[in-house]
Amino acid sequence: VPRRERSDLCEEFIEGYENEVLKDFDASAFVEELGPEASRIALFCVEGEPSACHRSLLANYLAKAMGVKVEHLRPG
User: Fold this and answer.
1) 66 Cβ neighbours under 8 A, 6+ residues apart
2) How much is the average pLDDT of 4-26?
3) How far is Cα 20 from Cα 4, in angstroms, rounded to an integer?
4) I need a labelling partner for 59 at 20 to 30 A (CA). Which of 7, 8, 47, 76 fits?
5) pTM, rounded to two decimals
6) Residue 30, class by beta-carbon neighbours within 10 Å (0-12 exposed, 13-18 middle, 19+ buried)?
7) DSSP code string of 20-64
């Protein structure tokens, strides 16, 4: 399925991303590295649906780890 037509990530990809990328990801260190001026974080994606983008996995991870809200901005 072409990227922009995809509505979800496959389970194998999600599991792999969580195990390979997010497993040892330190959300606090990530935010600290951005510096005190960074009060908002934006993750950009070309997918039509947030659920079809690996960045949504990172966004949800950060939201849970940092106790913050994720807002998906969509055209229109």
Assistant:
1) 27, 28, 31
2) 91
3) 24
4) 76
5) 0.80
6) middle
7) IIITT--HHHHHHHH-TT----------SSGGGSHHHHHHHHHHH
- Contact indicator for 53, 47 with CB cutoff of 8 Å: yes
Number of C-beta neighbours around residue 72 at 10 A: 12
Residues 6+ apart with CB under 8 A from 74: 50
pLDDT digit string (tens) for 27-36? 999 989 999 8
